[in-house]
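thought: fold this chain, then report.
action: predict
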Amino acid sequence: GDGAPTVLRRDMTGGLAPEGSPDGNTVVYSRFEKGKPCKIMLIAAPAGTSRQIGQCRSLPTTYFVWDRSGSAIFFDDSIAPDLPEHIFRLDLENGSVKELKRDAPDSASDNATSVSRDGRTLVLTRSIGRNLTQVVLHTLADDHEKVFLESTDFDLDAILSEDGNTVFVSVTKPWESSISAYPISGGAPQSI
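observation:
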């Protein structure tokens, strides 16, 4: 109406990392409580009542990526506080949580960033040790993974374009940051 933001929820314990559903009718967010694993909350937009739909195993907060169907979300979590983050899928219809299979060392930490329009591919960033960062394309049907890009001297973050033809990659170095567009089909990146 008047251009003012709509407050979905006032919560003293903190609502973090909101992510809107593909149809725009629902928001999932992480509820932080000091010293406890985060709660995964869902609320109808623009106004509704929050309800808990899941809980992290160990992380105090997490980030979300919606499955394109709107029936599931992907989130980062760790099975124990001292272990790296892996990606989990929460089925919103039955509440089941499943860890995605992956082709990576146990010490690798994964973060989901986006899902392709056709819902077949999850883009994730993976950190292995202190020096290796990868952008990985994970096929959801068979858990096949393809390392799309990797670096040993700077941090990468990535997201898939809406049409699925380009991976936008941000590069963070101590002395500069940049964003480039990498064609999925291969070829030279274009600086943005």
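thought: worth noting. The radius of gyration is 17 Å.
final: tokens above.
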